[in-house]
Structures are given as C-alpha cells and as structure tokens.
Amino acid sequence: MNDTTPTTSEVGRRRLLGAAALGGLGLAVGLPSGHARATATPSRVPVTERRERAVVIGSGFGGGVTALRLGQAGVRTLVLERGRRWKTGPDSDTFCRMANLDGRSSWLTTESQFPGVPGTWEPYTGVIETVHGDGMTVQCGSAVGGGSLTYHGMTLQPSEEHFAASMPMMADDYTALKSWAYPLVASMLRITTVPNDILAADPYRSSRLFLDTAADAGLDTFRVPLPIGWSYVRGELAGRYTPTYTSSDLTFGVNNGGKHSIDVTYLAFAEGSGKVEVAPLHVVRDLALDKQKRWVLEVDRIDTGGVVQEHKRIIADAVFLNAGSPGTTRLLVKAKAKGLVPDLPDAVGTQWGNNGDRIYLWLQMDGDPGRPQGGPACVGGRVPDSPIPYTVIHSGSPMLPPDGTKLMTLAAYGIVDPTGTWAYDTTADDAKLTWDPAGDADLQTLIRERMNELARVGGGMMVDQDAQGPSTWHPLGGVPMGDAVDRHGRVHGHKGLYVLDGARIPGSTGDCNPSMTIAALAEHSMADILRRDLRRVF
Ligand SMILES: Cc1cc2nc3c(=O)[nH]c(=O)nc-3n(C[C@H](O)[C@H](O)[C@H](O)COP(=O)(O)OP(=O)(O)OC[C@H]3O[C@@H](n4cnc5c(N)ncnc54)[C@H](O)[C@@H]3O)c2cc1C
Fold first, then answer.
1. What Cα–Cα distance (Å) separates residue 9 from each residue in 25, 118, 123, 196?
2. Torsion over CA of 180, 151, 278 and 314, rounded to 10 degrees?
3. What are the tens digits of pLDDT across the range 374-402?
4. What atom of ligand 1 comes closest to residue 475's alpha carbon?
5. Ligand 1 proximity of 505 Cβ (cutoff 6 Å)
6. Residue 414 C-alpha to ligand 1 middle, in angstroms?
7. Which of 123, 256, 341, 513 has the fewest C-beta atoms lying within 10 Å of its C-beta?
8. How many Å apart are CA 268 and CA 259, to the nearest integer?
9. Which atom number of ligand 1 is nearest to the Cα of residue 323?
10. Alpha carbon nearest to ligand 1 atom 4, residue
11. Residue from 140, 226, 304 to probe ligand 1 pocket by mutation (most atoms less than 8 Å from CB)
12. Contact at 8 Å (CB) between 339 and 391?
C-alpha cells in the first residue's frame, strides 16, 4: 500500500471529519442513488481569486496534450483536475482490485456502480465516474491522467475511410494526422503490441483461442497496440509481482506500474517544462464570461472525501476545455442554460454517441480459455469489406467464473449516428444525457450477428451484457466540431475558449477505441492554435 492509499483508519477519521463538515455543508440533491457530492456554505469556506494566462480543465488525453504544448510554447498554464494523483509501481497496492472493491474505484459514491460487483463505502474521489443518463450509462475517468489510468490502453488508428465517415469535416486533415499526429502520440505513449513470448504464456490462452476462432469465422485478426512496458508482465509471469496484468485486474488501475498513462508521459513532460502547474482535487463548477470579456471559473478545491476546502475564482485569458465528453458538455450546457456565457452555439449538448460499444460474454465455447486470463486486451478482429464498420476485441475476464464455467469477454464497436443530447436539469444544477437507441440500431444488429457467428464456429453461446441497460466507456460528442466548434476546437463566437477533448468528436472515432484519435486531434489542433492564436488571443 503506498502513502496515498486510504487506510481503514484514515477512512474512519475522514468519516468523522466528513460528518462534522457535512453538518454545516449538507448534501446536494438530485444526484442518482449511491452518489454523494459535498456542497459548501460560503461563509465557512475561504474564497480566493487568481489570475491566469491559460487554464486547462481536465488532465486526460486532450488535457495532457494541450498542457504539454502550451508549456513548451512558454505559456504559463494551470491544469485544473477534479481527481487525485495516483502513484504506482511494481507490486504496489495503489488501486483497488475487482475482488475487493472499495471507494478508490468510484467518483464520490456510497456504493458500487458496477453491476455484479457489490460494495459500499464512504464517498471517495475514486478513479471512475458513473454518469446515469436516460437510455445510457457512461463511465469515464476521474483522476490526474483522466481515463488513461483505467483504460486498457487499446491505441488504435482508424482507417482513412472510417475516420472520414465519423468526422466528415476533418476528412482533408487525415493525411496530416497520419503523417505526424498519430505517430507522435504513438511515440509519446511508447506503443507496442503483445510480444510472442507473452502471448504464448499460459494466462494468454484465451487470447490465442479468440485469435484462432475469429480467423475461422472469417475475421481479419490483429494484435492491439498498447502503451505497456512488457517487462512488468514478464515480472508477473516469473512470480515476482502479484498478478494484475496476467489476471486482467486492470479496470481500476494497474497496480504493478509499467503503463505509459498520460500522468507519467504528457503531463510529466508538461510539468518538466517549468511552465505548467497541475492542481488535483480542483472541481470546476461553472464557467462564465465577465463584462471585460475575461473567462471566469468557479472552482472548488475538495479533499479526497469530496468535502469543499476552498472556493477559488480563477480569471483567465484562455480556457481549454478537456473535461472529457461528459465533463466538457456538462459545463457548457450549464453555462448556456444559466446565461453565464452569452450566445453559445445551439449545437452545445448535441451529437453525442457511445462509439457503438457493446460488451458480450461468450460462455461455454469449444476449447479452454483458461483462468486467470491475461490482459490488457491485446487481440482483435475486423470484418473485411463490411458495409457497416465493426471491430471486436477480446479482453481477458478479471472475474473468475464458477468451476466448470468457461467465459470470455468481448467488446465490439463501430460508427454510430450521434443521436444523444444533453439538457440542463435545474434541480441537480447539471446536464443530463438522453440517448436515442436508433443511433446504433443497425450496428447492434450486425454486432449480434457477428457474435452469433463466432459462437456458431467456436461453440457455446453469446450473452449481450448491455441488453438490460446500454452502457459505454467511450463517450464522444456533446460539443460537435462544425456546429459548435471549428476544426481546431475554437468555440464559435468566443475568443479564447477551446474544446480539445472527446466532446468535439460527434459520436465515434471511426470504428476503433477513441483515445488515440482524441490525442492526435489535440496535437493537430494545438499546432494550429499556437501558430495563429498565441500572443493574439492569449
Ligand atoms: C474502464 C475504461 C476503459 C477504457 N479503455 C479504453 C481503451 O482501451 N482504449 C481507448 O482508446 N479508450 C478507452 N477508454 C476510453 C478513454 O479512457 C477515453 O476515451 C479518454 O480518456 C477520453 O479522453 P478525454 O481527454 O476526452 O477525457 P478524459 O481522459 O476522460 O479526461 C477528462 C478529465 O477531466 C476531468 N474533469 C471532468 N470534469 C471536471 C471538472 N468539472 N473539473 C475539473 N476536472 C474535470 C476528469 O476527472 C478527467 O480526468 C476506456 C474508458 C474506461 C472508463
């Protein structure tokens, strides 16, 4: 256990402190069951004001790239991140494990938000926020480094055709993205595919079985590029570290380190520039434009239990929204509905999609997938020449099924019509998502057919895990390019306001996981923004 992990006694102390503080603070209303959010009585909490040249909200893929490129250009930059910093390394106990869920898993909830994995706890600033919408549940990162702490690391570049189908207005930029932006991200994150010796090891039996069956079912199979130092996996295979990779116990963070996440790559380099300060546990509540046309941020500094310690008003020349698709969209929908930023585009809160995500469990297939099953998700397959783009990736299962049960987890996705919208909810002072399933109906039919074809070839049966309630790890859109921002993320009609994260991508990233494209687009846009706006706008 490292020095930042909450111990039982610390949680107990926090409970007492939290109870005392909450007596004066009260809990916010309107949040879904299991969520807690502390709000502050202004008289009790110190208020400070601070002037900044550039502020980045959020420290995931968009935020990490933005911060580094601003810092390298000599721009003093403050990164406001609601989550905490997590340090990990070989054999650490930084993150909670699937078999023993605790508050480190979840953003300020009192109970598990993960179906089939129970748990209750005191509110804690854990690594994943669950956002409940109408017709869709979204899970997204809430830590320094954003979703990169909890993502498997599947780092895929879409084909030109599928990229253009997802983002028609960027079609002409694909050549530039392919020639330098995607390769730059790949080198920053030190991307490689699973080496032969690891794929041949016993815990990767399920990956090998998937590759064989998928090929027999007519899919083009491939190894997934990943930001992983494979020596850490070898350390587990040699018995030197407690299994994390080799048991796929990765959903709440990688305890053995070796993952080139944004906090230890882009953000670390940004801080190394000497120009960038990262402020964890800083929640941006509101964004406004004042009479002098300056950007004003209302920010709460919280403790790891979510209790407000300080209120800050931060005034900036430029604000780079990188709070992720849900976070950025919620801030802008609020600002528009409350009149905090006049004349925001009508498209704010529209063109949201789930990247076509669907999770299937494959049960009782022929052959033995083994247990435990190694990860991260390192092998996949695509349908050659399909009219509907479709990719399926095999992910080792972190759950040990009952004896005699054979199980594999498969994640599939494609390109969707971004039919999701976000609307302001006065009671919660927040924006809420509504998803129209027409957006991915055709794709889901194809996915179901493809999964059944795998089972026909490889035996057993497929269970659609999302059938009862669709969910996604890949939220995209809400502040779409073209209608709300320009090709480089400049919000229409508002100098010095930028959106550089997944919120500007309308619904899908071209039949692959989104992080690579979010980061590459941020690189591409920052080059343009620094060329045209530096010393003119900020
Ligand atoms: C469990 C899981 C597994 C995944 N696996 C993969 C994968 O293998 N490959 C892949 O490509 N993608 C994967 N993803 C998706 C990927 O993580 C996201 O697409 C990506 O992180 C989005 O990047 P972003 O820059 O848009 O936002 P994020 O990385 O989500 O960063 C946004 C940041 O903003 C912060 N923030 C939000 N609101 C506020 C606020 N009001 N004030 C201050 N800070 C705020 C958040 O805490 C967060 O750190 C996975 C996601 C999850 C949840």
1. 23, 22, 15, 45
2. 100
3. 999 999 999 988 889 999 999 998 887 88
4. 19
5. no
6. 19
7. 341
8. 14
9. 34
10. 151
11. 140
12. no
Considering the domain architecture, whether residues 177 and 206 belong to the same structural domain is answered as: no
Nearest CA to 297 among 499, 50, 502?
50
Preceding amide of 389 cis, omega within 30: no
pLDDT in tens, 167-191: 999 999 999 999 999 999 999 999 9
The residue-averaged pLDDT of 154-176 equals: 97
Residue 382 tokens, joined: 């695509």
Q: In a mutational test of the pocket of ligand 1, which residue from 80, 82, 144 has the highest number of ligand atoms less than 8 Å from its CB? A: 82
Per-residue pLDDT band for 43 (boundaries 50, 70, 90) equals low
Kindly report the protein residue whose alpha carbon is nearest to atom 5 of ligand 1: 151
Residue 32 pLDDT grade (very low, low, confident, very high; cuts 50, 70, 90): low
Q: Does residue 1 lie within any of the structural domains?
A: no
* Counted domains in the chain: 2
The identity of residue 352, as a single letter, is W
pTM equals 0.94
Asked whether residue 465 falls in the same domain as residue 364, the answer is yes
Task: State yes or no: pLDDT of 24 exceeds 80.
Answer: no
Q: Quick check: 206 and 408 in contact, CB under 8 A?
A: yes
Ligand 1, atom 41, residue with closest C-alpha = 284
- Residue range(s) defining the domain that contains residue 302: 48-188+251-354+419-428+471-538
- For the chain, report the end-to-end CA distance as a whole number of angstroms: 43
